[in-house]
Amino acid sequence: MSENHIRPWRNIYRRKSRQINVGGVAIGGDAPIAVQTMTNTLTTDVKSTIEQVVAASEAGADLVRVSVPDLESSKALREIVKESPVPIVADIHFHYKRGIEAAEAGAACLRINPGNIGSEERVKEVIRAAKDNNCSMRIGVNAGSLEKDLLEKYGEPCPEAMVESGLDHIKILEDNDFHEFKISVKASDVFLSVKSYKQLSKITEYPLHLGITEAGSYIPGSIKSAIGLGNLLMEGIGDTIRLSLTTDPVEEAKYGRQLLEYLNLRERKSLDLIACPSCGRAEVDVIKIAAEAQEVLEKEGLPIQVAVMGCVVNGPGEARSADLGIAAGKKRGHLFIKGQVVKVVDEKDMVNALLEEGRLIAEEGIEARIAAADTDAAQIAEDDVKELLNIQGDINNFEQKTKSVIEITTNTDIEN
Q: Best-predicted range by mean pLDDT among 104-118, 205-219, 395-409?
C-alpha cells in the first residue's frame, strides 16, 4: 500500500524479506501480504474439497492448504489442483513419499518439516521433486511438536527453542541449495508466538507465515489471532497469514483478509461497519439497526466504511472519517458522508437509505455525492440537534465544536 503522508502514524514499514513464488503468488519482498486457510473436508472427497477451496478464494484466500495424509489423497490432489482458482499448499507430516507425490501432482507449496521426513537421502528426494516441479516449501515449526533434544535443552517450548528449530530446518534446505521457502513458528500461546516471530525476523531474511495455531473457536480464536497477528503486522513483520480457527475455513479467509484491510495492508474489498455501542441517549435500537445494516451492506459487497450512530448530536462528528453513516434522533435518521449531513430520512428507512447511498458512492464517488446533498438536509439536521440539546443539555459543548468539525472535514480528508 502507498505511504500516507497526511497521517504518517498510520504507516507500517514492512520488514525486508526475500521474495519467493508460490504458484504465481509472490510472497515476501514488497508483495501484498497473502491470506491462507486450510480445507477441513476429506481430501479424497474431491468435489467437496474443490467447493470449499473456491468459496475460500471468493472470501479472500490467496492460498489454500490441503492435507495429504495418504496415497489416495495424493491422487485426489492432482484433480483438486487442476480445478483450484488459487495455488494449493500440500500439508505433509512425516511420509517423504507424500511430499514427492504432492509436488508431482502440481502443489504450489509443501508445508513440511525437513527434520520429520527421515534420512538425509529422503530429504534430498523431496527437495529434488520440489525443484523439478517449481514447488516451494513452508517450514512449519510448532510449539507442540518441537524436537526432543530442544525440549531437553530448554526444558519447555520457548522462543529460543522455536527459533533454533527453525534455523536447524533452514540449514537443511540451504545445504541442499533450496531457497524457495517461507517459515512459521506457531504456538497456541500468543506471547510465545509473538516473541518467537520477533526473534526470528531479526536473524533471517526468509518470508514469514504468521499464525496463532489452535487458536480456538470463532470468537476467542479471532481475539487471540487479532492480538498476536495484529501486534506483528503493525511492526512490519509477516508475509502471509492464517487465522487458525475452529470454524468454517471460509470464515478464516474472510476475517484474515479483513484484518489486513483494517491495517491498510491490503486494498479494501469488504465492508467496514463501525457503530456506537449504544447508550441511554439513543432513541433507536442501535444494535438491531447495525446488525441489519451489516447484513444488507455486506451482501451488496460495498468496499466502504459505514457508521451507525445512535445520536444525531455527536454521531456525524464522531464518525466523520466514515465514508457513509446514519445518526438517529427524533424518529429520523441523518444520513451523512464524511461527517456532512446530505439527507434526512424516516427512522424506518435508515437501512435502505444506507444501501442506496452506498451504491451511489460506489458508482459516483464521495465528492459527487456530497455535492448532490439535499438542499434542506443540513438545516433540518441542525434544527433536530438544537431541539435535542434543549432537552438533554449541551454537555459536550456541541455548538462550539460544530465549526471546527466542519473545518476538519476538508477535501484532503475526503480523499484520504
A: 205-219
Q: 3-class SS at 267?
A: coil
Q: How many helices (H) and strands (E) in the chain?
A: 17, 17
- For residues 208 and 197, the answer to whether their CB atoms sit within 8 Å is yes
Question: Distance between CA 297 and CA 351 in Å, rounded?
Answer: 9
Find out whether 278 and 245 touch, Cβ atoms under 8 Å: no
Tell me which amino acid residue 95 is: H
Radius of gyration of the chain (CA): 25
How many other β-carbons are positioned within 10 Å of the β-carbon of residue 277?
9
Instruction: Specify the DSSP element, H or E, that contains 370.
Output: helix 366-371
pLDDT of residue 31: 97
> Which is nearest to 243 in space by CA: 235, 232, 251?
251
pTM for this structure? 0.88
Please choose, from the candidates 97, 88, 109, the residue with its C-alpha nearest in 3D space to the C-alpha of residue 69: 97
Burial label, 40 (beta-carbon count in 10 A; 0-12, 13-18, 19+):
middle
| Averaged pLDDT of the chain | 91
Q: Confirm if 311 and 328 have CB atoms less than 8 A apart.
A: yes
The H or E element containing residue 27 is strand 25-27
- What's the whole-number mean pLDDT along residues 10-29? 96
For the four alpha carbons of 284, 288, 291 and 295, in that order, the dihedral sign comes to negative
Taking only the tens place, the pLDDT of each residue in 207-262 is 999 999 999 999 999 999 999 999 999 999 999 999 999 999 999 999 999 999 99
DSSP letter for each residue of 152-202: HHHSS--HHHHHHHHHHHHHHHHHTT---EEEEEE-SSHHHHHHHHHHHHT
From residue 111, how far is each of 65, 182, 209, 320, 326 by CA, in Å? 8, 9, 11, 45, 47
Q: Locate 260 and state its grid cell.
A: 489486513
Please list the residues that pair with 181 across neighbouring strands. Answer: 137
Tell me the C-alpha distance between 143 and 319, whole Å.
42
Residue 395, pLDDT above cutoff 70: no
Cα–chain-centroid distance for residue 326? 26
* Amino acid at residue number 412: T
Summarize pLDDT for 312-322 with one digit per residue, the tens.
888 888 889 99
Distance (Å, whole) CA 309 – CA 286? 7
Confidence of residue 404 (pLDDT cuts 50, 70, 90): very low
